[in-house]
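Here is one chain, start to finish.
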Amino acid sequence: MFSFLSGLYFRGKLVYARRFAAPPRRSHGLNAGGVYVITPNAGLRSPDASITAATVKAFAAVDLDPENAAYRRPLERSAVALAGLIGHECGVVLLGSIASPKYVDVLQGIFGERLRFPLEFVGRGDMSRGGLLLRRAAEGVELTYVPVAGAPRHGPRPPRLPPPS
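Its structure:
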């Protein structure tokens, strides 16, 4: 459902995350593979979670704004729980938008320096990020992760990706 609604960008995130996720071995309770989706009203959820029409309607009713408690509180609760499961040494890679505060403002306060993002995302739009993620997953080459704290989150648009071969 998430891939259908979000198109190329979400498909790219999911394929890439499943290819490269490396949760710590001691973290019992993580979902399969340590990959999570940020939802509008239910915090972090497995990408394999069942989604009903009622779930989609409930998602649509919530504004993704860090000031909105209906969005922020479930995300904080699940992120705090995840932080407890993974321990202090494990990094967390955010494949969502880093240019707006909707994810970063909530997650950075919980994960701190462990919250990272692909530097190659800076300046790219959703479709470009999706294409980049799919290509790197197919090539088996990870992107360059940097801490969100202090990193440039806005920048010039990089050159277009060449057509896939």
